[in-house]
Protein 1
Amino acid sequence: MLELLQVSNLDSTIRLATPLLLACLAGLYSERSGVFDIGLEGKILIAAFAGAAVGVTMGNAWIALGAAILTSVAFALIHGVACITFRGNQIVSGVAINFLALGLAAVIGNAMFQMGGRSPQLPNEARLQGGDRALFSWMEDLGPVGEAVHNLFFDQSIFVYLAFAAVPFTWWVLFRTRFGMRLRAVGENPAAVDTAGISVTGLRYRAVICAGILCGLSGATLSMALNSGYINNMSAGRGFIALAALIFAKWRPVQAMMACLLFAFLEASESRLQGKEVLGFEIPVQLVQALPYILVVVLLAGFIGQARAPKAGGVPYVKER
Amino acid sequence: MNKELPGWVDYGLLPLLNLMTAFIVAGLVVLAIGENPLEAVGHIAYGAFGYGNGVGYTLFYTTNFIFTGLAVAVAFHASQFNIGGEGQAYLGGLGVGLACLGLDHVLPWWGILPFAIAMGALFGAIWAAIPGYLFAKRGAHVVITTIMFNFISYSLMNYLINNFLKVPGNASVQSRTFEQTAWMPKLEWLSGMFPGIQTSPANLSFVLALVACVFVYILIWRTKFGYEVRVYGANPTAARYAGISTTRIVVLTMAISGALAGLMGMNPVMGDQNRIFLDIPQQAGFVGIAVALMGRSHPLWIVFAALLFGMLYQGGAELAFEMPSITRDMVVVIQGLVILFAGAMEFMFRPWIAGLFTMMEKSDA
């Protein structure tokens, strides 16, 4: 079992946690403002596609990243228009976003590249991969510990640093700024916020846009850092794992990071656990894969603490007349 | 927004406008790719209805979508959103398959059928009743738990097929093929009308799907239980005051919903592939959401909505063949648009129509 704690496995954990964490924080902003978002998956996917498609055609990583974020925000705004302006059902809208993203990425991808939904390999200048090896390479000479520290903390893609920096930033925004207070208030009691003369609609739109930006980063991580290019349905349920992590963290940023690290650790360990025995039992790989989902069901059932969603979540706000 | 409008506007005009919007946007996507949308519609229609084999495939997909559409609709009536049709259909397929594997040496298909129906429905029902129970007793939202149950079902089925059902020494991840006597008959009696339909996977499950529609209609609108379900769906608090048990309604409704989704598994397992295989539902559980929304949770409209999606799924294959720049995934786009406009944005046109009516009333006065 000790091999699960090897540097290479921890390194995979950090890299796999990054897209989860970004998506999870996206959900955090949206759901704390009272807008449920099961469309995380779709936004990640369409952002991954946009990043890859623009990266291949333009050959510039920063333009590609911008495209990924803008596309994801556009999808977030569809969700916003449907749920905030037209007071539609947030779950239905989320489901629609997921299908729209899955279908559009495949249809447009095929029309652009004729590769059965894949994008061509991204050129190196359109990827955002490792850190600056030259700057910290001296650490590698410090023996195994230095090498481990270097590999884990100084050789990651920019997305890793962004994602983990976003955790304290999100905490600060939500709990220490006026915007954050209002955002949480609008998720708990929108009528009170409205009475104070603050626009419920405006706040919720801003929260949804924050979610769009973070999902855009999450998708770009997949196609521009972890892989080089777009593969059909490459988000592979990560949006839902992120959702699971969000519930597991009871809608709090630091706990969200822990949950994402835990789920990423499980994902990273899958292949290493294959065929391993614990106390005489062979652990089925499928059980490891299903574990995040099982944990969330157990949590929601109230067997480990109580997960309480923002009170006004899922309810469109109707101003009194 | 809250203005009273005539029934034909709320139940006829507005849904129609929403649906048209969805298809117009889909047409724009086709146009953006550089193809002619009308020509695309022609290919879809020909692929779906132009020849017997195509009609058969259309009916085969329609069968899946009727079952999953009914499943979502039944849950909707109790204001529960069952997104878990996919997992329930997967487990249902397992139930049907186990009945066939266990009895195919003993009984012919019509002897197995009652057991297959019972097992498929039971497995699907259990997979949906657990989230129902967790909601009623523990307050865990059905939306989230059913999503999680979908993923758990993928892992579970993967494990079961790989470790217990797989034929040893065979590389493909599937159970053994059932004895031919256990296969559900094809719709050969329709081959006079549609020559070639017997070569398609369309089978007797289609008729069972129609029977299920009648069952749901009677259940929801003609029984005491159905009345309680609708009362609960309209106002859970009022229902509780009227002495209707939340647990009973939610758990039973979810179980029935899951049973219907589970029966979908019969169509591919007993009617087409004749074995238990990976990914039995193939997205039909999700299409059911679009079908139920489009069919406004009524069995009759669900049949038409399912037929439309069946047509799109089969015609989409033809379309991809005729217009290589458009893939079958276009159907997924249309599905998303239908859910968006007929579901999430169903009130989009209402204020405008209401405004129009106010104007007309004023000019009358």
Note: Chain A has a mean pLDDT of 88.
Protein 2
Amino acid sequence: MPWVIAIMVALTVVAAGGGLALDNLADRARGDLAGGVTVQIVEADPADRSEQTRAAAEILGGDGAVAKMRIVPQSEVAALVEPWLGGGAEMEAVPLPALIDLTLTGDADPATLGRLRDRLAEAAPDARLDAQSDWLAPVLSAVSALRWMAWGLIALLAATSAAAVWLAARNALGANRDTIEIVHLLGGNDDQIACIFQRSILLDAAAGGALGLLAGGAAVLVLGAQFALLDSGLVQGGGLGSGDWIILGSIPLFALVIAVYTARMTVLASLKKML
Amino acid sequence: MNAPETEIVQFDNVGLRYGTDREVLSNVSFTLFSGRFYFLTGASGAGKTSLLKLLYLAQRPSRGAIRMFGSDVITLPRERLPAYRRRMGVVFQDFRLVEHMSTFENVALPLRVAGVREADLDGPVRDMLDWVGLSHRADARPATLSGGEQQRVAIARAVIGRPDMLVADEPTGNVDPEMALKLLRLFEALNRLGTTVVVATHDVHLLRKVPESLIMRLDKGTLADPTGALRYPPRRVAAGPTDR
């Protein structure tokens, strides 16, 4: 019995850890990208591109909807495309667009983007504005699906734990039927008899829960460390905070409540069949 | 003048059947009075154990009415039955001791069930073990006790709560005659303290050893009234030669 609860708790901790990490990741990505806009000046002529960039920066810098603006240095743009196009002298022949990174005061909604496009149309006709949230929408959608899957998994594990406890309680009842009957005939009431089983299941669940939390917590820590090594901004956004660890730490308590409640209901249902 | 006797059990036209089989008890009617000593006798299979099961509330009858300690226990809510069971002590035919408990714990069980504090258990349990001569076996498990010792543990457990009624099913069935007589003396001692005693036995020799007793005889599930014990008030059985 303690081993079953330990395994269930460990799996639930891992699933809940994953779910919480995905929650954090989605929230942080959404927060970071909600007001993020990238302006590309796609012009082959370096002088013209530079002129349009300067003009666009001037317009955008003075716009009330823009909270922060940064012209991405050309060296940084070159570094971004280096993995695909390579570096060195040949790169100088490739006309890279100029990039301006904007953070809006509000969300990058279509109305704001349309107004900014209109303002840039004359001074920087080759400027293209893209909301950063559009690029990551499919990724965020997948993250959301994974998150729901994690919570579904937790619900299934809780149901499986309850079923395992129910079976264990039934077995314990069968093995102790004589004792139950004697206590019953000596005037023990249902509550007294159920309490005997609750105490026994409580001890098992407490031992199993502690063991499961240790194993599951260790797995979450190791997985977190592995993902942190990826050094990806998106993945690092999925780290667990102290609140998340408190939630993970409370999982054995939920398991305890489920186990004790299930055992009690099982014993009471069985006792109801006796006079 | 004697105080009027209190009726503690009344069976009225009680029948009992298991499933769809024929009735194992039919039209059973009798009254038990407080402080009396009753023998329930009859051949094996006559229905003694079934009748005792009705008495110690392990079974509901298929028909008829049963009143115990002034209440109709047939219509009583299930939740209220434990309080009535606690007013009875039961010595089962097969003792039914809890195997994983010591002699002390088995005897203490009814007190624990009744909510007696742990600190208050030791004295009464030691006294009771002393009374049945098992003080030296307080820590022994039932499996290590002889048949007679197990019987005495079962009796100690049945009487430790000072029940209003003691029900014993073939309590002398597994012991030698000397031990049987000793056990009977224990029941008589309890009876003198005011407890109503009902002893089921198929040993007719035992009946004469308690001259004050009243006899009920079951024959194929029907209660006979050979001694007038079932009349109101019941007539005392004539005392025969005894080896007391």
Note: The first helix of chain A runs from residue 2 to 34.
Protein 3
Amino acid sequence: MKNKRSLFAVPYVIWMAIFVVIPIIIVLIYSLTVPVETADGEVLQGSLENFTGMALYAGVFGRSFWLAFIATVICLFIGYPVAYLMSREGPGFQRVAMALIMLPMWMNFLLRTYSWMAILENNGLLNQLFAKLGIISLYNRLTGSDIDHFQMIRTSGAVVLGMVYNYLPFMILPIYTVLVKLDNRLIEAAADLGANSATVFRRVTLPLSLSGIVSGVTMVFVPSVSTFAISRLLGGGKQTMLGDLIENQFLGGAYNPHLGAAISMVMMVIVLICMVVMNHFGDGGEEAMML
Amino acid sequence: MKKNGFGGRSLIGLCFLFLYLPIFLLIFFSFNAGESSAVWQGFSLHWYGELFHNRLVIESLATTLLVSLLSTAIATVAGTFAAIGIYSLTKKWRDPILVVNDIPMMNADIVTGISLCLFFVAFFHGWGGIARWLNSWQSLIKFPTRMTLGLTTLIIAHVSFNIPYVILNVAPRLRQMDKNLVDAAQDLGCTWMQAFFKVILPEIKPGIVSGALIAFTMSVDDFVISYFTAGSATQTLPMTIYGMTKKRVTPVVNAVSTLMFLAVLIVLIINNIRSAKQARLNARRASFEPVRENPRVERFKAWLTTPRGKLARRLTAAVTCVIFIGTVGFLTAFTQSRPVVNVCSWGEYIDEDLIDEFEAETGIRVNYQTTDSNETLYSLLKSGGADYDVVVPSDYMISQLIEEGMLEELDYSQIPNFEKIDPRFRNLPYDPENKYTVPYTWGTVGIIYNSTMVDGDITSWSSLYDDSNAGQVLLINNSRDAFGIALKYLGYSVNTTDEDEIRAAYELVADANDRGVFQGKVMDEVFQAMEGGNAAIATYYAGDYLSMLENNEDLKFVVPEEGSNWFVDAMCVLKDAPNFDNAMKWINFIASTDSNLRNMDYIWYASPNTEALEQYPAWYEEQYGEELDPEIYEIMAAPQEVLDRCEMYIVLPRPTRAFYNNLWIQLGI
């Protein structure tokens, strides 16, 4: 009987081979070739040029990883306490809170990011508020400067804010899922054995929620490092990130899919490393992505 | 367990405030009487009414719903069976499959997007050869030799990234299920199908439902993967929004999103109330308190087991199916009906009523899409993702497309209105014999500045590079224009191929960049920045300046004394365009004097049509009952002495283009 049921897996395995594995192989082929013009048109030629030429973009790599790292750390420091506090509430509260975290996904993320533009602009809502409250004139008096606004948009800070805003739920959800399943008796036992609350947290709660943290970190870091819409909207074209670079090679002005494929390959390797790390900490990732 | 105190709760509250602040703003401004997303101009439901007339938004919403519904349905069924299959495999086989299953979920969206895009394009390439071979070999079935990205590829991509979510939600339910249940059912005489419907399905139903919900949510919200796999002729709502965020997001989008948001909110509230009730019931059951079922519910449940009840259940299921198929059918018909001419132009570059009129007049459906720069258009065409008939590139890009054999010669006998094009705009260097193009608009590039933020009048490009306006200048975000302007300022030709001259231009821009003169690099984003007074100086097109002027009266425009670039955007037809004759009709319609007048009025770009250009001031007076400011007319249609100062771009040789690109990258990092 068992064998008959396992036949159900066959179509999906074929599907994955066609639409997951082969496309990645094609990306690999693209990354290892360059078009060369010959008498009878363009032909592809094997070359490592795409990878060696990437040194030009070291700055972009550096910036992407740095900004994504900062965003991930901030998400962790906001997300963990919120997930922790949520997991200690009553079931009704938890249900509502979960729904409230999922709900923003129904408003397109580009639109929400665009809304941040209106908030952060030089003449935007936040600067207007600061001016009304006298914060800007106070700042001018304290530092002896003469500004009429704070430059918030088109800075790397704005890009990080955009990442934190968009991906915070992906940090909260997996941590919360793990924490809510945590056996409360373990905590009680630790307390009975004389651990104070800080020790309980450090020695019991934190280690047990590690799988949630790991998957949360991956789920924030990967989209952050590869974003292109957020950096374009909030970074004002000055904060080029890996995603912008790749997009620019495929649908932008630079048009060089081979280079774009090579950059994607590098990014994919990073993802692989993340997956290995995740598997190392157990399969918390799977549960993390469920309601 | 200790409950959270006030401090804890307020932290959660703060977090939600952070998450919801922009959303409240969006909803708030969907009721704005004005067009701004930052200045409140009074309450109005105007944008909700407008919603039904905005074809771009409505069509892309329909596409989004169609794609999400179909891909969720397919992914849910396929994912459920796949999960059952995978979980009856031995561990040796199961684990590697699960790892591959994780790939689309863990991979960056952009990598998934481009890998699928490259795959589809490679497949289409291969398919062309196979189809030709098949067609030559037999004549029974004619296989299409040309395929492009579109709705099908979009749905495949969505199914692809949705299935893993379904599997991940169904799998734990399968794991929890007692394996012997199915065997027991079968021992008791169930067939396999019965065992599946009566035993497995009820057990894993919650997993299927939540998997489907997540898949649907992901599908609706997805932008990146759609962006790379939808090609040119199909646009989802997030893609439309992305296009708009560059220029101006019309509050119509706010209105659509508010409605979607409210719909989901209501569903969630109902769901919440239900599950709260269920939880209370379960709690009471667990504590062995007598549970009083609602007698009506009891009776209903009993009725469901009678033959009539069973019939009713089947009927309900059938009706649900019919509704689903009907919705999908309707959406397909709505988005796919007779797409007979595919046009690609720039954002907000046409009076949209003209499209409706053309459709009413000829019965041809216009699929109108936009991109934001010549380079993007070129990439789209090159990558094989585009299936346009008519495109409207600028001069230098036209000659590049001609050079690469990507354009089709036009049939001017079908375009009588070409006669009305001013001789000044015919036989230009990009198309010397005028075989490929019908001009659409023309204009100049100049400095747009905010007179309240800049001292005195600007007359020279030097204001872009000196420190007097540091931090207030917006650099144009493409290498050709940014370096072209610098070349002009240094007294060189914009078409120079001398690397030293180009390098000098680069040094000028790079030096200013290092000194922090530029606030940002923008294309269409310039609208928001300049209209809102967020920057003092920018370089852009004369026509767009006039649009901005409507929203901010402090703005001024000048074509600097050193000279500038003047351009022509012209309509061309792509090689092997599937709808050539319809394309001719469209071009002829747009080239007419009436269309040109209305376009001129709507987009503020000058027309190449002699009659329209002459008649416009009079037409304006007739329409609005006031005289057209001659200064505005002069900015729109620059007089000859200004044009004499300006140069038109011609296509640069390949090595020079590569040189531009390299310098531009160095500037960007």
Note: The two ends of chain A are 31 Å apart (CA to CA).
Protein 4
Amino acid sequence: MTSVILRRVLSTIPVMAIVALFVFSLLYIAPGDPAAVIAGDQASPEDVEKIRQGLGLDRPYLVRFVEWVFQILHGDLGTSIFTNMPVTTLIAQRVEPTLSLMLMTLVMAVAVAVPMGVIAAWKADTWIDRAAMGFAVFGFSTPVFVVGYLIAYVFALKLGWFPVQGYQPIARGVGPWLSSLILPSVTLAFVYIALIARITRAAMLDVLSQDYIRTAKAKGVGQRAILFVHALKNAAVPIVTVIGIGVALLIGGAVVTESVFAIPGLGRLIVDAILRRDYPVIQGVVLLFSLVYVLVNLGVDLVYTLVDPRIRY
Amino acid sequence: MPLLEVDRLQTHFRTPDGVNRAVDGVSFSVDRGETLAVVGESGCGKSVTAMSIMRLIAEPPGKSAGEIRFEGRDLLKLPEREMRKIRGAAISMIFQEPMTSLNPVLKIGRQIGESMRLHQGLDRGQAEAKAVEMLTLVGIPEPKRRSGEYPHQLSGGMRQRVMIAMALACSPKLLIADEPTTALDVTIQAQILDLMRDLKVRVGAAILIITHDLGVVAEVADRVVVMYAGRKVEEAPVRQLFAKPRHPYTRGLLAAVPRLGSSLGGRPGRLAEIPGIVPSLKTKIEGCVFASRCPEVEEVCLRFAPALEAKAAGHLAACHHAVRGREEAA
């Protein structure tokens, strides 16, 4: 098992290398110029060119790429063009809110979506099923910012249960931290719940028609144990898969959610960086997100072996 | 009082194009320690009968009516909670498909132990120890190791042994076996039948075996119920049924059994068959259900459904001319 994990971890290296090349190239061919942004509207082309040379942006693509990769391998993601701070420092400052948001959303979504999908499958074609799946379609098709503003309006402005905006670090206490995270997490969880609940329902429907479920019933097993022990474990592989894939949704959604709720996280960092063409910051954050995604899905692969004894690597 | 009395059981299914009368007024009984075989071709309602006794018919679309008295209690009237206490304890079931009837993600030992934990209140450790005992009983080598394995690590024959161990774990009074050997190859079939016969004596269970295989019937049954198109057409002690079948359908079934030598000897004979197909169960049949395929059909058969009548002691048949037909043939 350890050799498997090691092998899989090593196999993420080429993936990350391709991501790095892709991110770098994409920014290279993307329009926009940080030098022009720094120089401002009044600057002459000569001034812009001078700044560009100062930033080293006039050198050839390949040279810059090799240099960047060399830096990364030494644990250095470069320096922000605008703030002159190391990208690693910028990321470190912003990582807690985003990580908190994503984890909270993940826990909340799984806790709601899996039982919802299971019950929808059990009560297939009844109003309970239709209500759950209707909710899922609604959740999936409503943009994050719409849900976010609606929820903020009702629960923060009207009812005043939670803060409207902002983020409280966990260091200032679990209570304020949770309370600042609830609305953003609920917002972000909507899409995720919809996705997981639908897959859970489909996987459960398939499993519930299997012979071994009939066997379990014939043994006198109760409904709850049939659903959550005999069936859910068999349906787990697609569910776990979609939870892993859905992390991509979380990353994308976190960017928007952080804007809606003014959370100073990585999402805000990357949006600001993109607007200013702050290449090192963009590259650093995208690389980090990719790494998270790859690692989560590596985790998913390993979870397979826990839920299904027939899967061995 | 017989252990199980199925009384005018009707199990119907609502389908988009009409009501499917899968079981239509079937009665029979099983005594303690007895082996009753229910035979008939595919779609005759024998499996639905078994599922109805276990109350495992999904409702809707299915619906059972009539009475199923087990030790005097009507199972069809029991609340689901009470029924759950009977399933796997007093009545248990073995299914046709050993390859798919075991849960692929749970260990064998746990699956066998589960009913004992549910019905006998054993804790996990006790149940697992009992599961190993059950595996020994059904003749699985290295039972301790096997109980820690998953179904995909076992062969088909072994899985059916596991199913039997599971079914017998709580020493049921009635074991329903739905085509227990159909999916197995012939040598394994014989082993499984031997095992069932052996365990029946040890546990003292009555067996209701559902099969289309008359070879199996001859080997294990005390009495036989022949079903056709959702009805019982004949019932007799096993020797009598084979020696003196009263219903033309039963005679057809017996004639259709391939016999070694009959086609290998001098003239390559053709296997006898019953011409025609089972009538649709969605239309109400006037007259005898078998009339459309019966070689001895007469005017009366098409008009009136024949009643089940005793043709000899313990021998019932639903045929207008069951006795005469037999005499002519004899």
Note: The CA atoms of residues 92 and 175 of chain B lie 5 Å apart.
